[in-house]
Amino acid sequence: MSFPTIGVVVSTTRPARIGPKVAGWVAGLAPYGTEVEIVDLAAIGLPFLADGQMPSAGEYDQPSTIAWSERVRGYDALVLTVAEYNGGYPAVLKNALDTLHAEWNGLPVGVVGYGWGGATAATGALATVLDRLQTVRLDGPGLRFGEDLTPEGEVLEAAPEDAVRGLFDQLVAAARERGSVTA
């Protein structure tokens, strides 16, 4: 039996951000035995589409892209914690997705949005991209400021813990179906 390794991605890089708090809360709800790692795109520091070839060629020449590819390939699944910026998702997340190609195919990817409206516009736009990348997209809850968390990122009692736990269960099942984790 092997345990799944799941990356929980912080999709924001602004100096004043709550993404690490949201990602930490999500990661804390992972099932026992699951290896979870916070993946902070601010620390990854990918330049914008810097490789000489299209990502679909799979011929990465930038050390940052090669490292990002190896990191993504090391996960059985990902959870994207997605802030909503002006009705969309952060550009740094779009860049992280667009920098790679084959790595996304068949990878189980859960989505937990957060914002004033639960990030519905952002996660809706992201769904189109994740589907185009042929991920196994699993939609999680949208956290709303004032209901589920404060604008400073403090998680409130009403936050949907069971929905996040259910998302992890779906991710583990999808990883097993994919064959990257054995029962």
TrEMBL record:
Domain NADPH-dependent FMN reductase-like: 5-138
Pfam families: FMN_red
Matching PANTHER family: CHROMATE REDUCTASE, NAD(P)H-DEPENDENT FMN REDUCTASE LOT6
The protein's name in its UniProt record: NADPH-dependent FMN reductase-like domain-containing protein
Naturally occurring in which organism (per UniProt): Ornithinimicrobium pekingense
Lineage of origin: Bacteria, Bacillati, Actinomycetota, Actinomycetes, Micrococcales
